[in-house]
Amino acid sequence: MNLHDPAEEIVALRAEIEQFRLLANNVPVAIAYFERQGFTCRYANLGYASMFGRDEQNILGLTFAQIIGEAAAQQIQPQVDAILRERRAASYERQLPDGEGGTRHIEVNLLPHMGAAGEPVGAFVLIADITRHRRAELALRESEERLAKFMHASAEGIAFHKDGVITDVNPPLLALVGYTLAEMRGRPALEFVAPDQRERVGGVMSAGAELTYETAVAHKNGERIPVEFIVRTLHHQGERLRMTIVRDLRDSIEARRRIHHLAHHDALTGLPNRNAFIEQAETLVAQAAARGTSLALLFIDLDHFKRVNDSLGHLAGDTLLKTVARRITGTLRAGDLVARFGGDEFVVLLAGDTPAAGVQEVAHKLLAAVGAPLEMEGASISVTPSIGVALFPRDGGNSEELIKHADTAMYHAKSKGRAGCCFFEPEMAASALAELEMESRLTQAIAAKEFVLHFQPQLSLADGSLVGCEALIRWRHPERGLVSPNAFIPVAESRRLMLPIGHWVLHEALLEARRWRDAGLPAVPVAVNLSTMQFGAVGFVEGIERALAETGTDGSMLELELTERMLMDDLEQVRGALLRLKALGVRIAVDDFGTGYTSLGHLKNLPVDRLKIDRSFVKDLPADASSAAIARAIIQMAQSLGLRTLAEGVETEAQHAWMRDQGCDEVQGHWLAPPMAGSKLRAWLAGGLEPQAR
Ligand code: C2E
Ligand code: MG
Ligand code: MG
Fold first, then answer.
1. What integer is the mean pLDDT of 241-267?
2. In terms of Cα–Cα distance, which of 278, 282, 295, 301 is closest to 422?
3. Distance from CA of residue 395 to its chain's centroid?
4. Whether the Cβ atoms of residue 648 and residue 613 lie closer than 8 Å to each other
5. Ligand 1 atom closest to the CA of 671, numbered from 1
6. Does 351 score more than 90 pLDDT?
7. Are 658 and 635 in contact (CB under 8 A)?
8. Which range is least confidently modeled, 484-488, 492-496, 634-638?
9. Ligand 1: centre distance to CA 472 (Å)
């Protein structure tokens, strides 16, 4: 550049000014210069001018009061005077509206401009926008306030600590540990942790981990309080703070303890339950195996417990079970295990190395103790147990196997006349296995169409007319031939297979009744036997209603045979169910009457149509006096209640005549007609086959 050429010099200067302007307009600071005389603006960058709604040109020459407003100028004047007087820079903060309804924070720096004479001739103004700064500060303050509020509002204890020293604690935590804030603040956090937990908590603290764990704190009075710690790290004003939420676990630990107890104990007797028993038994089995000693497992089942429940009520049943539990425990030694497996089943594990004779002795003591008479509701009752024994290692290598075999042995004790004790023998397992096999075959029998119904006519004693037919199931077993219901119904009952089988019977029987009607045969009801399981099932009445609808049969074509046991449960419930059946037109018979314990008063309240006198009272007639007395009493009782009677299993003419003479209404039995297949029955009904008695 040639500095001696004025034209070029001007060009260069212009360029320099332009550069300066560019710079001044692009720095994030508003810049202006005011001369002292009159405080008029001599320079303003774009930022300054636009801050006050001007541009770089039209702002020049205006006084600073004109630019920022009279009120603001008056406020600022003392600062301006001070910098000019004291000849040093000053700064202050101001807020301006940001034009969008908000506030703009500015920091104003005033710098005196000294003239050649050392006198201030003007002032530079530099304004920085610090809105963002201020907002961040505000946010921080707010979050701090929020944290404080949260900490105080929280029902859970919260402590802040820094480098292991407590900085703040909220009131709930103070209440939990019994200290004041002054006593805790500034103290090492570990001082308030239960002594046995300090090492662990200290470890978590020094690792700086964020986690949740169970530990314990120490109350001022020394009490150890189980708590849950939820530990978090916070960054606060450049510091690393640790926040610990402290949750009192005393209530939930108590709740968990109770749940654990419930899961492992029988609520009624307080004895361990099956799961707990197996757990403990496994340990004893392992110990015995290691030492080469023996163990004895006794399976105890009460005989006819259901009768107590049925006749005296569940409350009495519960009392009895509690008494039995006490008696069993009282008979045993401290190390022996006792558990209730549910219902009336108790299991005992004799822990000592007891020889077989010793086990027999314990079993007899148990039989005597459990079976001892007991006063209940003014009556003296006695419930005997049946006991099955399995020995370790002879009868099983683990608790499950021992339980299974003792259970099998117990069934043998029952079948040998109850109130006794049986030791397991391998042959017993064979019959249990046979049952299992039967169960698996039974599950397939419906699909395989192996069941058939036979029908046995029921006749009026007055005129020999047909009054009904009883449907009796048979199982056409591929290998065993026609199997009687007595051989498989108990298995089906115990394995819950009775519902699908019962459903099948009901449908088949109703279909057969329809065939009679369609063939123009006498419209008599078909009698269907019910099992306890069916009658007790949810939606039983609806199921009957559905079966009638599905087979297109009228309710009056169906009679249901219930046993006395089914009627004894909950009178109101049974009554309700029977009334609903009656409303459908269905008739109700009580099967095997005389073998149960139904009271007269009970029957009076139930809508029953007829009583079927059990075959056991018929078979020895007319010679046997006691059978005759019972049969006569049943007939008279039924007459007084307005119920009809039917004698089951009539096999002789003498029995038939005896029943007619006593005023029995109906008969069923081989002497009249055996159960027969549907097609055969229809032929019989059509008159092709004559019953002997007609
Ligand atoms: P139950 O209901 O008492 O049926 C009468 C039983 O006596 C039938 O035995 C029948 O064949 C038999 N019987 C009839 N007349 C005579 C006779 O003159 N002399 C002798 N000795 N017996 C006679 P079954 O068919 O073996 O049935 C046995 C039991 O099985 C039935 O006793 C009943 O409780 C049950 N049962 C049969 N079918 C069903 C069914 O479909 N469902 C349910 N839940 N149980 C059924
Ligand atoms: Mg029957
Ligand atoms: Mg019967």
1. 81
2. 301
3. 37
4. yes
5. 18
6. no
7. no
8. 492-496
9. 6
Predicted pLDDT at 3: 56
Q: What is the mean pLDDT of residues 335-351?
A: 92
Look at the block and give the residue holding tokens 């010793």. 358
> Does residue 426 have a pLDDT over 60?
yes
Q: Which atom of ligand 1 is nearest to the CA of 485?
A: 30
Strands (E), 345-424: 345-350, 374-376, 379-381, 385-392, 421-423
pLDDT given for residue 694 in this prediction = 39
- Domains, the chain: 16-129 (3.30.450.20), 143-253 (3.30.450.20), 267-424 (3.30.70.270), 449-687 (3.20.20.450)
What is the percent of the chain with per-residue pLDDT over 70, rounded to a whole number? 97
What is the average pLDDT across 166-193?
A: 93
Tell me the CA–centroid distance for residue 639 and ligand 3, in Å: 20
Determine the residue of 451, 472, 475, 501 to mutate for testing ligand 1's pocket, defined as the one with the most ligand atoms within 8 A of the Cβ atom.
472
Which phi and psi (to 5°) does residue 237 adopt? 50, 50
> Ligand 2: distance of its center to the CA of 666 in Å?
14
**Residue bearing tokens 């539990």:** 325
Task: Average the pLDDT over each of 67-81, 422-436, 442-456 and give the range with the smallest value.
Answer: 422-436
The dihedral sign for the CA sequence 548, 549, 554, 556: positive
| DSSP calls for 617-682 | GTTTTTT-HHHHHHHHHHHHHHHHHT-EEEE----SHHHHHHHHHHT--EE-STTT---EEHHHHH
Residue list, CB under 5 A from ion ligand 2? 529, 561, 591
- Ligand 1 touching residue 649 (CB < 6 A): yes
> For ligand 1, atom 20, which residue shows the shortest CA distance?
649
* pLDDT score of 663 more than 50: yes
Q: Whose CA is nearest to atom 38 of ligand 1?
A: 472
Cβ of residue 530 lying under 6 Å from some atom of ligand 1: yes
Chain segment 106-153, per-residue pLDDT in tens:
999 999 998 888 888 999 999 998 888 888 888 878 777 777 777 777
CB of 651 closer than 6 angstroms to any ligand 1 atom? yes
pLDDT at 565: 76
Cα(627) to ligand 3 centroid in Å equals 16
Does residue 531's CB lie within 6 angstroms of at least one atom of ligand 1? Answer: yes
